[in-house]
Amino acid sequence: MSPPANCTQGERSLHSRILILALLLLLALAAPASACGKSVEDLVGSFSIEKTIKIGSGSECFSSAGAVDPLTPPQSVGAGSLADDQPPGLAGFAFQPQQISAASPQYINLTAHLIDDQGVWAAEAAFSGPLGEEAAALFSSQNLTSGNAKDGYYGAQLLLTPSNEAGEWHLQNLTLVDREDNRRIMVEGDLTRLGLPTVITVI
Q1: pLDDT of 71-91, one tens digit each?
Q2: Is this structure's pTM higher than 0.85?
């Protein structure tokens, strides 16, 4: 005796309902996974932005590191008890003219007598004008006019572009550097006490 036809239809309806419930369950489970996926992608995106900032910063540091400071000597190979640890000394300093006209730019010729037992690397004389302007002259090994690196005379030029107002340019500092990067920074008062000129007058 075969089962009634309506029983087979009931089983099919039950199977369909089970399949639909299973699909709904799968969709419900898939939704959180999708949300988690978005969260991970957002996190990756923020890391990507942060990394870009760091790369830009590193490139900037590299560029600034490439800039050459004329007062900084190459890395020294000196070592041991005989290594130089004393900064250079100033034996003389002068400049001409000491008075200029405000009507036009004019070069000032500077001379520095520098001494160091291991050799002078460079020096810089920085001046400040009556309105806060700044100007500097560099004494380097190329500017050695007589003597040698241990006891020599150096020449440099300073171009002033003063305003039409009369006033004085004062020496702010004179920085002396040897080959081991030992530095001596002298201010206006230090040179005045040595009887050396420090003021350029604009008339």
Answers
A1: 898 875 554 445 668 999 999
A2: no
pLDDT in tens, 34-56: 444 444 444 444 444 343 333 33
CA distance 141 to 139: 7
Residue type, 1: M
> HEC string of the chain?
CCCCHHHHHHHHHHHHHHHHHHHHHHHHHHHHHHHHHHHHHHHHHHHHHHHHHHHHHHHHHHHHHHCCCCCCCCCCCCCCCCCCCCCCEEEEEEEECCEECCCCCEEEEEEEEEECCCCEEEEEEEEECCCCCEEEEEEEHHHEEEEECCEEEEEEEEEECCCCCCEEEEEEEEEEEECCCCEEEEEHHHHHHCCCCCEEEEC
Would you state the structure tokens that stand for residue 2, as one six-digit string? 């075969």
| Residue type (1 letter), 170 | H
Sign of CA dihedral 92, 95, 96, 99: negative
